[in-house]
Write a structure and sequence with these properties.
The chain is an all-alpha fold. Helices cover 76% and strands 0% of the residues. α1 packs across α2, α1 runs antiparallel to α9 and α5 packs across α6 (142-166). The radius of gyration is 19 Å and the shape is globular.
């Protein structure tokens, strides 16, 4: 197997792992919305739910490997510009988002791996969000940094919503018209749901910055709980949760059909160096 094929396989495993977790989060939240059990605890709780299933530790171990692969691919994708986003502001913003996504995937890999090995903590998405917000708040100009992160997260939410509205969700897929016919509505619903939760999470971060209180930060689980607390919240939660499930299914479609322009690992060192220089230019 060539190094390019290795990176491509890592990327596809990563998309599949992300798909499984989003399907779990969305499915559990849908059950909570209709009053049939379930929960709105986000990805960490979804992983703990998986632990209780037959062969749960094995499944969590596979998900941990998948997220490790996804994290590595996101870093390579961002630094080497594998998707050819360019060095204009829009391209740099997308590549910066990939770097953040790589860090988040690394955290999920650690959570899944810890649970598989029996050493995972009980903290959820909200706890993790508060912890890193508190750390960032303690830095020089901390509230400003938290506010900028919140604006960036909300901006990503708007970008997801625009992508869902325009319907350009299969631009990186290599698939037949028959596949695209059902993948497009699935992807649009999924990106719209991601847009909603990112806007809510970003809003909580901006509020935490304005009040200088890390305790106001929320993760995915907190965003879903906030939706459920609104008037007719069970409808808002149900639709958003169904969208997150759809995004999980769409990620699995990406695992099969996404165009992966992986660089050769033998040349990755030079590509990474060039990417770093371009980012700093």
């Amino acid at each position: 197997m060539t190094s390019q094929n290795t990176l491509e396989m890592m990327a596809r495993l990563g998309h599949a792992a992300r798909g499984v977790v989003y399907c779990l989060v969305g499915g559990l939240a849908v059950l909570a919305a209709v009053g049939s059990g379930g929960e709105t605890g986000g990805s960490s709780n979804a992983l703990r739910t998986l632990l209780a299933q037959p062969f749960g530790r094995v499944l969590l171990g596979l998900i941990a490997i998948g997220f490790l692969c996804f994290s590595a691919w996101r870093f390579v994708e961002a630094i080497t510009d594998a998707d050819r986003r360019g060095s204009e502001w829009k391209g740099l913003a997308i590549r910066g988002g990939h770097l953040v996504g790589g860090i988040i995937a690394l955290g999920l890999a650690a959570s899944a791996g810890g649970l598989a090995l029996g050493s995972g903590g009980r903290g959820g998405d909200d706890s993790a969000a508060r912890d890193w917000t508190a750390w960032l708040m303690a830095q020089p100009l901390g509230p400003w940094l938290v506010g900028l992160v919140g604006i960036g997260v909300a901006g990503a939410g708007i970008a997801f919503a625009v992508k869902a509205w325009r319907g350009k969700v299969t631009e990186h897929l290599v698939c037949s018209r028959d596949v695209a016919r059902w993948a497009v509505p699935m992807g649009r619903l999924g990106f719209a749901a991601r847009g909603v939760v990112f806007l809510v999470i970003g809003g909580f971060l901006v509020a935490a910055a304005l009040h200088s209180r890390a305790s106001e930060a929320r993760g995915l689980g907190g965003a879903l709980e906030a939706l459920a607390a609104q008037p007719l919240g069970w409808i808002l939660l149900g639709v958003t949760a169904a969208g997150l499930f759809a995004f999980g299914a769409f990620s699995m479609v990406e695992a099969v059909y996404r165009r992966i322009d992986a660089p050769d690992l033998d040349e990755a060192g030079g590509a990474i160096a060039d990417g770093v220089r371009n980012l700093g230019a």
